[in-house]
Amino acid sequence: MNLPGGIDTFALSLWLLRVAFLGALYLFLLSVARLLLRDLRSVSATAPGELGRLVVISSFAGGPPAGASYALDAVTTIGRDVNNTISVDDPFLSADHAVLTFRGRSWYLEDRGSTNGTYLNGAPVVGLAPLGFGDEVQAGQLRVRLDRPRPPRSA
């Protein structure tokens, strides 16, 4: 059937159906984008800033002063190389000396085959050693203590 002006009703209804489908598709994509954005904002607002920190107890002359603090990531490397998370120019540290990892809810310390070794509470670290808050780590002449993260500042 043709409408006045020679327009076919089937072609017109098919065209309107296509426009309605396209509009519904755009509304669906817009709602998905809004949900993702809201989810990302909520995750970033509740994500912890730091997982822990290392506080310097003692170090070599010219090293970090006692009381200095280093915020820890999930994987924190210690060594003389500048590519480490915590880079200390201690002559008794290896370039890639030790690594602290946060797995689940626990910290672990691993010596990376250093020449002078890594010590946890005075005992040499062999393999992967569990680590708790308050434990002392010695690498070279650097002695640090694992402390809890600082409380987040309120806005």
Percentage of residues in helical conformation: 10-25%
User: What does the radius of gyration come to?
Assistant: 29 Å
Number of strands: 13
Sheet/helix structural class: alpha+beta
Number of helices in the DSSP assignment: 1
- Beta percentage is 25-35%
Main β sheet profile: 6 strands, antiparallel
Stretches where pLDDT is under 50 for at least 5 consecutive residues are none
Outline: rod-shaped
**Spatial order of the strands in the main sheet?**
4-3-13-12-9-10
End-to-end gap: 68 Å
Secondary-structure element order, N to C:
EEHEEEEEEEEEEE
Mean pLDDT: 87
Describe the fold and architecture.
- This protein has 155 residues and is an alpha+beta fold.
- The protein is built from 1 helix and 13 strands.
- It has one helix spanning 9-46; strands at 2-3, 7-8, 53-58, 69-71, 75-79, 86-87, 98-103, 106-111, 118-120, 123-124, 128-131, 136-139, 142-147.
- The chain has a 6-stranded antiparallel beta sheet, with no helix packed on it.
- A hairpin with a 2-residue loop joins β7 (98-103) and β8 (106-111).
- The longest helix has 38 residues, at 9-46.
- It starts with a strand and ends in an 8-residue tail after the last strand.
- The model has no long low-confidence stretch (mean pLDDT 87).
